Amino acid sequence: MKSAEVRSKSRKIGRPLSFDRDAALEQAMLTFWRHGYETASIVDLTTAMGVTAPSLYAAFGDKKRLFLEAARRYAGDPEAVARAIREAPTAYDAARDLLTGAATAYTGDTTPKGCLLASATASGSAASAEVQRAVADIRKQTETWLCGRIERDISDGVLPPGTSAAALAGMVMAVVQGMSVLARDGKPRTDLLVIMDQTLKAWPV
Questions:
Q1: Interatomic CA distance for residues 89 and 153, integer angstroms
Q2: Which letter, b or e, does each residue of 148-157 get, where b requires 16 or more Cβ atoms within 10 Å of its Cβ?
Q3: For the residues 92-110, what does the mean pLDDT come to?
Q4: CA 189 and chain centroid, separation
Q5: Residue 68 and residue 11: Cα distance in Å, rounded?
Q6: Same domain, 55 and 81
Q7: Residue 12 within any structural domain of the chain
Q8: Is 162 in the same domain as 111?
């Protein structure tokens, strides 16, 4: 009887602590956002998430898979993003919404400054090559959706026939990424919105 009790207690001790996976992922996202992919250590992550290292590995795999899941959380539901761009009244509206969203997200009061996707992989080392490719794919997908919306406006006569959809979408994405750097340097939201307004003045009519 005593040995059975000991085995029962051992099993309880050996069980991983239960935790709110969604809340833990949110904290991991903020940690990567704040420190970057390579700089954020497992200790940084487990401390922020309130879990042990074994629990982290059991729930998320390894650090790379944890980051990729956090990056997807940050980027939002791709179907929702695609739909918002596709259903915008015009490509101009879609671009304005992307830029406004970036300026707002990069200067939040309760989140790190800048863009997680830009800052988390800024080091560019070979060790994070797969992570960099995954992040680049997220950005490219958004650019592709915007490019498609611009092409539709060109086809519908909303934009001049000679408009380069690829160049216009690239301009928007370049400003989105530039805003991240400026936000991390301390630029306030009001300044980023002024930059957005100036950028949109280059929109062809």
A1: 10
A2: bbbbebbeee
A3: 96
A4: 18
A5: 32
A6: no
A7: no
A8: yes
Count of the separate structural domains present in the chain: 2
CA distance 178 to 139: 13
Q: Which residue has the tokens 């990069």?
A: 106
51-85: pLDDT as tens digits = 999 999 999 999 999 999 999 999 999 999 999 99
Q: Domain containing 195: what range?
A: 76-200
Contacts of residue 165, defined as CB under 8 A and 6 or more positions apart, other chains included, come to 147, 148, 150, 151, 154
- C-alpha distances (whole Å) from 135 to each of 39, 75, 143 are 17, 10, 13
Cβ proximity of 98 and 81 under 8 Å: no
- Residue 15 gets which letter from DSSP? S
φ and ψ at residue 125, rounded to 5 degrees: -80, 160
**53 part of a folded domain:** yes
Domain identity same for 42 and 92: no
Q: The pTM is what?
A: 0.83
Identify whether the C-beta of residue 178 lies closer than 8 Å to the C-beta of residue 103.
no
| Residue 148: half-sphere exposure toward Cβ, Cα within 13 Å | 13
What are φ and ψ of residue 28, in 5° steps?
-65, -45
Residue 100 pLDDT greater than 50, yes or no: yes
